[in-house]
Write a structure and sequence with these properties.
This protein has about 180 residues and is an alpha+beta fold. The chain has helices at about 5-15, 20-30, 45-60, 60-80, 80-85, 90-95, 100-110, 140-150; strands spanning about 115-120, 125-135, 155-165, 170-180. The mean pLDDT is about 95.
């Protein structure tokens, strides 16, 4: 997992819980003296341990925390890579451009980013079907990213996530519906 993801998690925890909470999480759930550098790779287990600790601290289900982090993550990524986000005129273009534009740019910027496989199909002006597949099974984070993107473009969406790797499927199927048209 790229350090930038940890950096955004740090920002979120500090904003919501304060610096002391972040320092406690690091002390209890990260290797001693850990500082996350954005372009460096870190073991996925560190992010999962920190996310679980946040969920425990807030007494919330881990799924809710992962989804909320994805939502927050979109803004963090958009701020760091505004030139990429500005290529898209609207939410649908961004979602449809994840594989052919966004992931291409990520691969240019970072060595071995270990991106999920994402395929999208526009079902209508208001619906997109996304197929998500990754050994990390961060589909709930992907949901949050989609909600963050919708907010960025001032849209309201609903995501139907009936097929999921967490329930034994080989991939997740998300149907994203814009509800503000």
């Amino acid at each position: 997992m790229k350090g930038m993801i940890f950096n955004v998690l740090e920002e979120m925890v500090i904003e919501k819980l304060g610096m002391a909470a972040w320092n406690t999480l690091l002390t209890e759930h990260a290797p001693p003296g850990r500082v996350y550098v954005s372009a460096k790779n870190y073991d996925d287990s560190e992010l999962f341990a920190l996310a679980a600790a946040v969920a425990n601290t807030l007494n919330l289900p881990l799924a809710d925390v992962v989804r909320a982090f994805g939502h927050y993550l979109f803004q963090g990524l958009a701020e760091r890579h505004i030139d990429v986000v500005q290529r898209f005129a609207n939410f649908n273009e961004l979602v449809m451009g994840i594989h052919n534009v966004i992931h291409v740019e990520v691969n240019k910027l970072y060595v071995d980013p270990a991106l999920p496989t994402i395929r999208c199909e526009q079902l209508s002006d208001t619906q997109i079907k996304m197929i998500y597949q990754s050994p990390r099974k961060l589909c709930l984070c992907a949901e949050g990213l989609l909600y963050g993107a919708a907010e960025y473009y001032q849209h309201t969406i609903h995501i139907q996530h009936d097929q999921c790797m967490h329930q034994g499927a080989t991939h997740c199927e998300l149907v994203i519906e814009r509800q503000d048209v």
